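Hi U.,

Before I forget, here's the chain from the pilot set. I'm dumping it here mostly so it's searchable later in email.
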Amino acid sequence: MIELNHVSKSYPGKKALSDVSLRLPQGEIVGLFGENGAGKTTLIKCILGLLPHSGSITLDGAPITRRNIARLSFATSEHSFFPNLNAEAHAGFYAAHFPDFSRKRFDGLMRFFELPRYKALRSFSTGQKNQFEVILALCQGADYIFMDEPFAGNDVFNREDFYKVLLGVLEPNETVLLSTHLIEEVSGFIGRAVLIRKGKIVGDVSMSELEESGEDLMGYIKQTYHYHADRVSRALDEITGEEE
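Structure:
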């Protein structure tokens, strides 16, 4: 289990995370939702040890260090691969550095996305780069797979097919934390939703709990964020209304 206890992170002039406590057991698919600047990416980067922070983050009770970091993988739209290498070279690199790298999964996902194996990654389209980033994260052999807006640049059909493939390839011990704005698309795919706003966790609910209450995910998010349905009409009235 990954456990965060009272984690805070500040940038100059801004508090990005404020007293965040969260548990991520193995075997879950968790959606992380929030507005731009809510703290989603900062939260993930703190877990991965990419940003200093206060509070504690542990993996099965131990700090996350070089000894256990291989149990975590990360797919980011910022990209973490080597742009001058091709896909096959990446597979060789990952196999050499991660003992649990899955060549079978790698080959299957490469075929599914129809990605070229011997072209430098710098020549890929944005969508292809994001697809390959996801492939590497899924094939590393990690127990916890973090994805930060991994579907940017991909059309809706590719995304829908990918959700189905992901559900089919994940092992029971693998956990996915998916940060995305595509709330309605992933609502039938995740098992739990975590909501973050202004650096604080403001909601944490399982999809089964929502189903039992007869509420959908979008409705839950709007209610938690105190969304005002008339904000657009009020803004238009102010913009287009006649001056007094």
